[in-house]
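This entry is passed on directly below:
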Amino acid sequence: MIVPARRIAFYAPLKSPDHPVASGDRLMARQLRAALDRAGYRVELVSDLRAYLRDPEDAEAFARLSEDAAQERARLAAAWAKDPPDVFFCYHPYYKAPDLIGPALARDFCMPYVTCEASYSSRRNLGVWAETQAGTLATLRSAALNICLTGRDRAGLAAVDVPNLAQLIPFIATDAFAAPPQPQDGHIVTVAMMRPGDKLDSYRAMALALGHLPPDLHWHLSVAGDGAARADVQALFAHLPADRIDWLGALGAPAVAALLTRGAVYLWPGCNEAYGLAYLEAQAAGLPVVAYRTAGVPDVVSSDIGGALVADGDPVALAGALAALLDDPARAASEGAAVRQHVMTQHSDTAAAARLSALIEGLFKERIPA
């Protein structure tokens, strides 16, 4: 007898994979959905409700969200009355984006509830965030499986007694980077959105680092990205020769892949970066990476394989690591080739699909009576 593929109800409260605005969250949501599909599951995006609470003091926004979530739960409960999914899979629930839909439905329909990239921060117990975080913590403690993408998130959950933790290393769709690298000497590449906060801080560190490069060193920077802080970003680089920097604006995925294949080194400090899928894309294209050793960056960049991680907040060290690679193109190409092979095998969507299948099927094997 042929057993039909399990159905997975997929929900991303922070940003739906179908959201019109590109971001790392949207990309990972899309890649998880695709990896689950590759693993043979029937994946259904069950809601586009965005549960983003920007202001912890905005109780009205939380009340509206709660009402909208109740309507979504009622709609899905009616739709699933005779044929519910087998698993509810929630991507990236946390204090600003709680899952107010899945836990109750999973409980009512007796299906395993699975999270991926959940996080907890005791520093954020403010206003309505305190309530959403308490609810998220209770949900994580009762979940059948909590999949972590970084060591930092896993340690944070373990510290508050969240059980059923498992690891899935960050991954990308590697097929897009099948073209062989054609590095151009001195070509530095950066792909990042331009917005206030951590992104702007990283651009600031980049600009400072470039200012510390030896004056006779050959280099040229290509920046792919755009956003509300574009003018602020470009102002940070005003002290550098304008003819050494190309501001390319936002590029589509194929154009980004093509740009990366022409790079010699990828530079992005990664201030408070969760992990950064752009690092994996750069490495898949054969670029060694220069970044800060901070936040989740070490989960995707290793100084042992094609990476140069320096102390957080030290743009002079960034400049030194960057100059060492630019001054030795053969070394940069060799390190890029090594890390390309590593990402293609260890951080691929194929590897992720196999890992996700093993984790999810393990939930059902445990249910088989002896």
Q: What stands out?
A: The first helix runs from residue 24 to 38. The CA atoms of residues 48 and 311 lie 40 Å apart. The two ends are 22 Å apart (CA to CA). The longest strand covers residues 7-11.
